[in-house]
Each structure stands twice: as C-alpha cells, then as structure tokens.
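Teaching soon. Got one?

===
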Amino acid sequence: MVSMAAVEHDDIDRAMRAVPRREFLPRSQRPFAGQDRPLPIGRGQTSSQPSTVAAMLRLLRVPLGARVLDVGSGSGWSTALLAFLTGPHGHVLGVERDERLAAWGAANVERTSMTWARVVQAEPGVLGMPRENGWDRILVSASAPALPRALVAQIGYGGRMVIPVRTSLLLIERLPDGRTRATDHGGYRFVPLIQD
C-alpha cells in the first residue's frame, strides 16, 4: 500500500519538474538554477533553495481545487508551484510588497498559462489578503519576528499556513472548532517579513 506521504512527495517532485526554477530567475542567475541554495532575484530578495521550498510545500499539503495565498511571492515561482498543485479548479493569489518584483512575478506566472494563478502588489498596510471564509492554504516565504495575528485570522476552517517565525518553520492549522494549533518543523533562514 502506498502511503499518503509518498503520494504528496511525488506531487511535489512533479511540481518541481513541471515548473522549473530557472524560468523564475534573472538571466544572470539561471546557470545556478539547479543548485540547492538561495539565489538573488534583486531588490534585496532571494529565490529560496529548492529543498526548503519542497519542505514547505510538503507541510502545506495543498489539495486539488484549493484556494491558496502566497505571501512574499517574489519571482512568482512559489505561486506557480502552488498553482500546479491546486490544478485548474484552484485559485492561487501571490502578493508581493515590492512593486517591481510584483510586476516581474506577475509576468512570470502569466507565461505559465496557469490562468487560475496571479501575482499582485500587496496593498499598503495590509498583510496578506483577507477574504471571506479565509484561505485553504497560506504559504509565507519571509521570516516574521512573531506569529502575525493578521495572517492567522486569514486561515479558513480546516486550513493550514506554513510560515517562518524567527528561525523556526511553523505549521499553523485551523481546527474544526476554530482554534489554531502550531507545530515547529525545524530551523531555516529567510529574508525578513516586512509588516507595515
């Protein structure tokens, strides 16, 4: 019998092959796309190392058809990976604070032809993108100094958020009774999450 973890692992591997990192890097960084390390994408931001992105996606457990928020979408690579995982019945929204990165990330995602995903510039003073009934999944690719209540409030019932807080990667789950549960999944380093 094949375990659920093995199936999810295969899905992440498939997504990584289908959505190559190289297409979401500045031309000068493309020769290094296959290296398992963060790469600069400009504006003081990086493309996270693939093994870290894969670990975050495994924790997130993105189901087909999910509504997903990608906070700090940068080049759009994580947004496109999430879109591959949700499939065409899903909805993926990447938000990025930096205007130039948001425009570049939006163009990168548009080129994938996954029309159920897009990147927008974050609204000033708003962390994430509040929506009625919350999001099924939230991926945060920048480190917060403390768990942001504003993002926790955006997790829908039965939803999950993966977020680095200081140097720990946390999984936050919204339980059926509305409470949240946090579990720590090891140490990582990310660029800081800027909260207005």
